[in-house]
Structures are given as structure tokens and as C-alpha cells.
């Protein structure tokens, strides 16, 4: 079991024929992802060869790709200016899950396509995220599949690089699914969405949650954990050393007073029974202690 992504997931890549799309399609295929098509209106009908004697067809639209392949996941590797149109096209085609890797998408665009996706019942992950990986089954996005393995830990993280570090540090214990939700002010899937899914996944035994300064997502997640999550959760909040009142680049996070600080988030999580590490490595050690004791 896993959340959102399994070995049966059929993936199309919007922007597959671009440089980033080609590079990461190659990596996704190498990690076992079932990629069934690319989408590029200007190259419809073409085929693209990848290592391992794999040939992927290119379709003119997401709707065409879904009709021909039965795809149920789209991953978006298109420039920021075209991301809104790409997401709306996939939503209109009825794609159930859209993973948006693109960084630098205007927040107004994200607000618009997120509201539209919600109205149609489509799940978005991202933008500005590494995607998600169910180790040994499927990998959609830019996470290196070679740094971890399958297991019973669920991971939800705002930060791409901290996702990778946690996957690596706990690689011997392994993960059910790791979801990089992205660090933008508006993201399609939240900590709470993933916590709910992991709580309901019988093959996830414990959860790692990684947050960042700014906003109140972690405080809201803490309240949710207190009420609804029975599995052990360990947490880490990036930004303990960040100066107050300064906008931080990655998350676009601004800290106002005590709200949104790493310390405030840590205290909220601990009040909900979450063990919070001061560093990523300490967080990994806390999770190791929980799983090896059980």
C-alpha cells in the first residue's frame, strides 16, 4: 500500500520533450515509474526514445493521452508562464492527480488553478515541489529514487532537499510514500491532507512531517494531529536560525511576531504529542527510536 501513487499508476509528462522533462522522464523510468505518454501539442504523433529500449508516444493533449493510455497521473514540467494553462487542461481532461514541479509559478495563477481543481475534484501536488515517491513502485517528480527504499514510514515535507535528507537518513527502515508538497504560499496538497492519508494507510506505521517558518500550516497540522492521528509523528521545522521579520526565499515566508516562527511551530507540534527534532538528523534519530522500539 501507499498513498496517492502505486506501481499501477499510469503517468503522462506534460512538457516531456523539453530539457527538464527529458532528463527527469529518463530518471523516473529508471526508477520503475509506468510512464505511458508525453504531452506537447507541437509534437503530437511523434515518439521519443529513452534508455533501455523504451519508446514513449507524444500526444497533442492530456485528453488524447488519457483516452489512449488510461493515464491517471500527470506530472508538469513546463515553464511558469504556461503552468496555469497546463494544469487547467489536465483538470478539464479529468486527470485525478496532477503533480506540478515548476518553480516560480505566480501565486495568483496557483490560486486560480487550485480553486478550479478543487471544484472538479482533482488532487494537485505542488507547485514548486519535488513530487512524490513510493519507493520500489513509482516515482513522479525529481526525487532521486536511489537514495531510499520501501518501508513503513510516511513522509510529508515542504522542503525538497530536506525530503531527500530524511529519505537517505532512514533509508534502511524505508518509506511507504514520501510527498514533497512544495514551499509556495499556496499548495495543492497540505500537511493535513497527507496526515489523513497516512493515518488511513494500513502499511504506514509512523509519520515524519517537515515544515518551514512562515504561515500557520504547521500549527493547523498540529491541531489536526491532536484530534485525528493515532500513529506516532515526528517533526522538524526548518528556520530556527532565521532572522525575524525577514522574508525567506524558499517558502516566501515572512515571520511576524511569534506567529510563524520555528519555535512557535515546534511548541504547537509538541503540545499535540509530536516529537520535534532540532536538526534533520535528530528528527531521523527520533523516528528510528520509535520504530525500533515497537
Molecular structure report:
The chain is of the alpha/beta class. It folds into 2 domains: 10-125, NAD(P)-binding Rossmann-like Domain (Rossmann fold, 3-Layer(aba) Sandwich); 148-293, 3-Layer(aba) Sandwich (Rossmann fold), CATH 3.40.50. It has helices at residues 19-30, 62-69, 80-92, 107-120, 160-169, 191-200, 217-228, 262-271, 280-293, and strands spanning 10-14, 34-39, 47-50, 54-59, 73-76, 97-100, 123-125, 131-134, 138-141, 150-157, 175-180, 206-212, 233-238, 275-277. The protein has a 7-stranded mixed sheet with strand order 3-4-2-1-5-6-7, sandwiched between helices. Helix 1 links the parallel strand 1 and strand 2. Helix 6 packs parallel to helix 7. The two termini are 20 Å apart. The model has no long low-confidence stretch (mean pLDDT 94). The active site is at residue 250. Pfam families: CoA_binding (PF02629), Ligase_CoA (PF00549). This is Succinate--CoA ligase [ADP-forming] subunit alpha. Substrate binds at residue 164.
Amino acid at each position: 500500500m501507499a498513498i496517492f501513487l502505486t506501481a499501477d499508476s499510469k503517468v503522462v509528462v506534460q512538457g516531456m520533450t523539453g530539457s527538464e522533462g527529458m532528463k527527469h522522464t529518463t530518471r523516473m523510468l529508471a526508477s520503475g515509474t509506468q510512464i505511458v505518454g508525453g504531452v506537447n501539442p507541437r509534437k503530437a504523433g511523434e515518439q521519443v526514445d529513452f534508455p533501455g529500449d523504451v519508446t514513449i508516444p507524444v500526444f497533442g493533449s492530456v485528453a488524447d493521452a488519457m483516452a489512449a493510455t488510461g493515464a491517471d497521473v500527470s506530472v508538469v514540467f513546463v515553464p511558469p508562464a504556461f503552468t496555469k494553462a497546463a494544469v487547467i487542461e489536465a483538470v478539464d481532461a479529468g486527470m485525478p492527480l496532477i503533480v506540478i514541479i515548476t518553480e516560480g509559478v505566480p501565486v495568483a495563477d496557483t490560486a486560480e488553478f487550485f480553486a478550479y481543481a478543487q471544484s472538479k475534484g482533482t488532487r494537485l501536488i505542488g507547485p514548486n515541489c519535488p513530487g512524490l515517491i513510493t519507493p520500489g513502485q513509482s516515482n513522479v517528480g525529481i526525487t532521486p529514487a536511489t537514495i531510499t527504499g520501501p518501508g513503513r514510514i510516511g513522509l510529508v515535507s515542504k522542503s525538497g532537499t530536506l525530503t531527500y535528507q530524511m529519505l537517505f537518513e532512514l533509508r534502511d527502515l524505508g518509506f511507504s510514500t514520501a510527498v514533497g508538497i512544495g514551499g509556495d504560499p499556496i499548495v495543492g496538497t497540505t500537511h493535513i491532507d497527507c496526515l489523513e492519508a497516512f493515518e488511513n494507510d494500513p502499511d504506514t506505521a509512523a509519520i515524519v512531517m517537515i515544515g518551514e517558518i512562515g504561515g500557520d500550516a504547521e500549527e493547523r497540522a498540529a491541531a489536526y494531529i491532536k484530534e485525528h492521528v493515532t500513529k506516532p509523528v515526528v517533526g522538524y521545522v526548518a528556520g530556527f536560525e532565521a532572522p525575524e521579520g525577514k522574508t525567506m526565499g524558499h517558502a516566501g515566508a515572512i515571520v511576524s511576531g511569534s506567529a510563524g516562527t520555528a519555535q512557535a511551530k515546534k511548541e504547537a507540534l509538541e503540545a499535540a504529542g509530536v516529537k520535534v527534532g532540532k536538526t534533520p538528523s535528530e528528527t531521523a534519530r527520533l523516528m528510528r527510536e520509535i520504530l525500533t522500539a515497537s
